[in-house]
């Protein structure tokens, strides 16, 4: 059993997280595998994150207080297929205005029960279509995340999952090398008119125009997709002012919110 324990521990040491399914692939005998997992938990070589998911404690941390888990390395083991999205994507792309953010957004067609581990919440966001994603290296492993353009579209669509308007605007303003054609194609594929109203307003702001090199022709292409209906930028309707150019009601203090300190 000691040899088996050591083998299982070493197998996932670099990966940091593993599932019961992966452990069974290494030790096919279920009884032996589960006993090995129990022994590793008793010796604190591994920690149970939730049912069917474990964290490996690095050698240098054995017998000491364990360092906080890397939330994105953990997230990639929660469900499959998946993509990290919204504020999580902003963080991975290196543009998040708020560095410490205790929530992870996972989009996937396969549901999982949202949970919390070490003060970080892991939330399932249903999505059947996982186009607009890319693989990137995060720490010691590869993770899947929405690409820059899909991240922009997602954050504009669901500000609540992007940290709110101010956080989203300041983060997106830092985004570089945005492909407008790809962004436009993603917007068309969404088949939601409000997206064009929100995108148009956002891309017409000087900070975004400068950062993403948006030209008048590109703004005109967004304008062609507008509806005669008036939309609200924020989901919670309230007092605000109408931006006639984009048929969009925005908060009265939005210019303040969009100014960097």
What would your notes on this structure say?
This protein has 261 residues and is α+β, with helices and mostly antiparallel strands. The protein folds into two domains: 2-61, Arc Repressor Mutant, subunit A (Orthogonal Bundle); 71-257, no CATH class. The protein is built from twelve helices and twelve strands. It has helices at residues 2-12, 20-26, 30-42, 71-75, 87-92, 148-157, 165-172, 180-190, 193-204, 206-212, 216-223, 254-257, and strands at residues 17-19, 46-50, 53-56, 83-84, 103-108, 115-117, 120-126, 133-138, 141-146, 231-232, 241-243, 248-250. The strands form four sheets. It has a four-stranded mixed sheet. The chain has a three-stranded antiparallel sheet with strand order 1-3-2.
**Total helical elements:** 12
Name the overall outline: elongated
Largest sheet, described in full? 4 strands, mixed
Number of domains: 2
Estimated share of beta-strand residues:
15-25%
Rg measurement, Å: 22 Å
Order of helices and strands: HEHHEEHEHEEEEEHHHHHHEEEH
Distance between the termini: 59 Å
Instruction: Give the tally of β-strands.
Output: 12
Q: Considering DSSP H and I runs of 4 or more, what fraction of the residues is helical?
A: 25-40%
Give average pLDDT, whole number: 92
Strand order of the main beta sheet, please?
4-5-7-6
Q: What structural class results from the helix and strand content?
A: alpha+beta
As residue ranges, the low-confidence spans are none
